[in-house]
């Protein structure tokens, strides 16, 4: 009888242990599902100007409107391939950069990849390669040849961007920081600044958006920066997810979709 009770007791312990194990496993799975649900992406971009329209609450790039329209539709194609349903919100560049560097589950584009930004975010791309020059008012040619020639002049830059940082490091004390390139170009046309630091890629559309005659703006030979642009992800994004984004982008590029989007949305 004692042996029987011992046998039943052992079975009871085993049964309770099994139930506890299943309960623990269920908790783990539920927690994982909760974490997955909480890890929804928030996606931001900047400097859209007139290159995008809001359709039923969704930002869409306008055909042949410029590089920002292209970046927006490139993200949309990438998100479709990844099964991501987060819509894009526009923020000033400095705000978007701060968010992606300090919060989790963030994607932000287009961001130039620089040494000082390494480790603060993860990179998908490159989605563009750009050279930034100093541009001047064509009616008032400066004759500058090298960057140092402009050091005591007023230069309009996009607040917090790669040109802002580069010129600040080189001792430019008269930088005028703005939230849009179009505003910088208007200031240049009005004679309120001496130069604007901006990329050649997409400039015609920026001038169009600012309603400035292209003949009023001239490119100097002075290069401010050469950089590749990327979609930036929060630094906490796991390796596997980062690789999933990069592989999806690589497929877009190799399939010819990237080139088709360029042709559809650039000037």
From TrEMBL:
Gene3D superfamilies: Periplasmic binding protein-like II. Keywords: Signal. Residues 1-38 form the signal peptide. Coiled coil: none annotated. PANTHER family: PERIPLASMIC SUBSTRATE BINDING PROTEIN FAMILY 3 (PTHR38834), SOLUTE-BINDING PROTEIN FAMILY 3_N-TERMINAL DOMAIN-CONTAINING PROTEIN (PTHR38834:SF3). This is Extracellular solute-binding protein, family 3.
């Amino acid at each position: 009888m004692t042996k029987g009770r011992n046998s039943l007791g052992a079975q009871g312990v085993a049964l309770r242990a099994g139930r506890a194990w299943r309960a623990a496993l269920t908790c783990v799975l539920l927690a994982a599902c909760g974490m997955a649900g909480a890890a929804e992406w928030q996606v931001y971009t900047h400097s859209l100007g007139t290159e995008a329209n809001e359709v039923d609450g969704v930002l869409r790039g306008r055909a042949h409107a410029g590089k920002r329209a292209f970046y927006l539709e490139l993200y949309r194609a990438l998100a479709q391939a990844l099964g991501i349903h987060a819509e894009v919100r526009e923020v000033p560049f400095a705000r978007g950069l701060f968010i992606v560097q300090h919060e989790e589950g963030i994607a932000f584009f287009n961001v130039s990849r620089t040494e000082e930004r390494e480790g603060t975010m993860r990179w998908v791309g490159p989605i563009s390669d750009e050279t930034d020059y100093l541009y001047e008012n064509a009616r008032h040619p400066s004759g500058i040849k090298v960057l140092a020639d402009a050091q005591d002049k007023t230069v309009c830059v996009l607040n917090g961007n790669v040109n802002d940082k580069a010129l600040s490091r080189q001792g430019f004390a008269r930088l005028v920081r703005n939230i849009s390139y179009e505003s910088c170009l208007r200031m240049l046309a009005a004679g309120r600044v001496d130069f604007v630091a901006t990329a050649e890629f997409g400039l015609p559309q920026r001038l169009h958006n600012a309603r400035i005659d292209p003949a009023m703006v001239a490119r100097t030979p002075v290069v401010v920066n050469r950089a590749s642009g990327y979609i930036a992800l929060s630094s906490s994004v796991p390796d596997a997810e980062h690789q999933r984004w990069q592989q999806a982008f690589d497929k877009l590029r190799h399939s010819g979709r990237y080139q088709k989007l360029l042709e559809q949305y650039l000037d």
